[in-house]
């Protein structure tokens, strides 16, 4: 059975470049880091040196199944990005568009309950304690404004 090389492989709704190694290719999926991708590859009994384009359909399905059911495959909880989720109380790991939507809803929740972080988000300021005196001044004038130059008009002579 000959394996065909594919230039683009679609995993969990993300197109991955087929020329990259599997460890780094999986980390291109939003919400998936290098450590979790290594754990997934180990659970799938694949080599990290394998190129993404050389994966068979069966391998892709196996990786997707592991990514959708991390608890079932006993991935450690410290690798997951949402331990003890507020809504469900379970250890979750979000990827792709789910991560984007949940992050947006978390920020909206902080704004609604008027927490410090929510207030900073709503004002468009730095949230995590960075300095704001000199940095983060995008979109505003910095320093002293120059006065408008008024052209001197010649005075009319009296006769």
Main attributes?
159 residues; mainly alpha; 2 strands; 5% strand; elongated
Give an account of the 3D structure.
- The protein has helices at residues 22-26, 34-43, 57-68, 97-112, 116-123; strands spanning 8-11, 14-17.
- The chain is mostly helical.
- Among the domains are: 8-79, Orthogonal Bundle (Helicase, Ruva Protein, domain 3), CATH 1.10.8; 96-127, no CATH class.
- It has a two-stranded antiparallel ribbon with strand order 1-2.
- The longest helix is centred in the middle third of the chain and has 16 residues, at 97-112.
- The protein is elongated and about 100 Å long.
- The model has no long low-confidence stretch (mean pLDDT 84).
What is the CATH C-level name of the domain at 8-79? Mainly Alpha
Under the CATH scheme, which architecture of the domain at 8-79 would be assigned? Orthogonal Bundle
Structural class: mainly alpha
The helix tally amounts to: 5
State the total count of DSSP E strands.
2
> What's the shape?
elongated
Order of helices and strands: EEHHHHH
Low-pLDDT stretches are none
Classify the helix fraction into a percent range: 25-40%
Radius of gyration, CA atoms, in whole angstroms: 27 Å
What strand line-up does the widest sheet have?
1-2
CATH topology of the domain at 8-79: Helicase, Ruva Protein, domain 3
Q: How confident overall, as mean pLDDT?
A: 84
In percent terms, what proportion of residues is strand?
5-15%
Largest sheet geometry: 2 strands, antiparallel
C-alpha end-to-end distance: 108 Å
